[in-house]
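Input record, target 12 of the design panel.
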């Protein structure tokens, strides 16, 4: 077996570095589709740039509980989400250097449709595992707990709370995916680096 075969045969060669990757709005374009759904169903006329807060209740003018219900309603509709631009190529390259894990805040009761959506783009062996932290639900876990358990070296997320949680509790390199809802956050610790695209992530991780 030559070196190239060794490098591409993951049964033989497994990278020893670990990257933990958020799913929604990092790999899959949740908000792009959620806005369309919300505009149609609830009569809003929101654009992507209007989502300037992570708290959708604030954007939609409803209670927190109602916002969770609407997100759940959308996720239960089993709509296939599009990939974030550049995610496929970057992840394809990164898996030669990192063991990749998805760490999503989604509840585990939508595990099947989530895995279905991921496997419509990525082969089964792309990710070592997919963790559901059940944010907003019972038995929720912090993403820092998962990152510690899997010995992550790098963590990527579009949520400021999540990158701060991982940086403060695990102390690893974190990338904040630039999105309208995290624009107002300034003065992040140096170890939290804002990234603007998947090619940006690739360049900073290889
Ligand atoms: Mg996200």
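The sequence produced for target 12 reads:
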């Amino acid at each position: 077996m030559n070196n190239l075969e060794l490098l591409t045969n993951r049964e033989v060669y497994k990278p020893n570095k670990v990257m933990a990757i958020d799913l929604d709005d990092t790999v899959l374009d949740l908000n792009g589709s959620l806005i369309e759904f919300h505009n149609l169903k609830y009569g809003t006329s929101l654009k992507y740039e209007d989502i300037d807060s992570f708290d959708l209740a604030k954007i939609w003018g409803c209670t927190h509980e109602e916002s969770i219900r609407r997100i759940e309603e959308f996720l239960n509709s089993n709509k296939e989400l599009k990939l974030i631009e550049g995610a496929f190529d970057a992840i394809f390259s990164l898996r030669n250097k990192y063991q990749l894990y998805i760490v999503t805040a989604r509840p585990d009761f939508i595990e099947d449709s989530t895995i279905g959506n991921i496997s419509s783009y990525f082969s089964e062996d792309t990710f070592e595992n997919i963790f559901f932290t059940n944010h907003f639900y019972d038995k929720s876990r912090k993403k820092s707990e998962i990152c510690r358990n899997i010995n992550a070296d790098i963590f990527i997320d579009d949520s400021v709370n999540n990158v701060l949680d991982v940086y403060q509790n695990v102390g690893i390199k974190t990338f904040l995916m630039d999105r309208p809802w995290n624009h107002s956050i300034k003065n992040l610790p140096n170890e939290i680096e804002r990234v603007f695209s998947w090619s940006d992530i690739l360049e900073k991780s290889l």
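Residues 30-42 form the longest helix (13 residues).
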